[in-house]
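Changelog-adjacent note: as of this version, every example in the card shows the full chain rather than a window. The one below runs 161 residues end to end.
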Amino acid sequence: MTGPEPRYRTLVGGADGVEMEPAAGWSFSWVDRDAGVAGLRAAGGSAQVVVEGWGSEWFVTLRGRRIPVIVRSRREQLLAEAAGASGSGAGPIDVTATLPGLVVAIETAEGTEVAAGDPLLTIEAMKMQNEVRAPRAGRVSAVAVAAGETVATGQLLLRID
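Full-length structure tokens:
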């Protein structure tokens, strides 16, 4: 499922006592619901996560990385999918930093055509390199950062038309 912004991941449910629907192959269970500690399990292993937030905007902390998540009811998800199918997703899209760090490499330039999933740049945070990929196909119309620059969460990295 896709969210309205590339920096968010979407889960259906999760609020008002409704259980979340995790990615295929994963199971979700509360370890300590009051403390916001949950467990994720898959055939390849398991991990504990911290879940915090309110309303539709939540954060899941997994292995030291705080990941923004939008929680929607099934109705809200269907409406978002219908809006995306109607072409309202056309137009420029801002790609922003999902975590603070150092830009170590830029793999694209203004005017470059990119496909969904193409690597755009790499940010180093907490001694790990995180590749930022194109959320959809388009042409890079602006690159707002340079290699060696420090970025903050939510800072504009580039724009795709």
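Structural remarks: The radius of gyration is 17 Å.
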